[in-house]
Give the backbone structure.
Amino acid sequence: MTVRATNPSLSSMDADYDPSPFETEATWLDSARAAKIRFKRDEELADQLRGIPISLKYRKHPADYVRISFYTFCSRKLLDVLLAARVNISYVEVSAHRTRLELGRLLLGSRIRAQYFFFRVLDEFDCIDLTASEYDDLEFWSVRKLVLNESTIAAGSPAFYVRNLPLLCVRDELKSAILESGCTGVSFEPISKWRL
């Protein structure tokens, strides 16, 4: 059964880049080691990321969710929400340091006391409704309207990636749990409004 509505119980999840006290910019501290990481969805990344420190630049408090390109990082607070919701994830603790600009130079500060983790959602489904969606080329990620075929998504999966797209989807229950926990740095958008 294909749900031709706009998948009202699903939202995309991304890092929130709006200026706020929690706006956080994340970068690699060891870009040479980070450049050697080979990103493949079917490969375990935790071992590759172990020991590569990240830099967080923020005003008052670091956000609970940050990204560096396709790599996602979260605080212990957000990790606990994901684990309680039984999201199928792989994760490893990373060393996070605060950085700041001073006289045009980037200065490395102390290690952040809060725990940060690289995490990757492992569930991925080939769930694009090709007849109801509007796209030019899925291979090159040109999507005007996205509709998912919910019958191809495991019912017990609170979060998953859409195969062939850089899209992390979360069910309303997980979205509510994240918002109620007060986690920062996360933005949600209904699937019906998602464009690429």
About this structure: The first helix runs from residue 31 to 34. The radius of gyration is 17 Å.
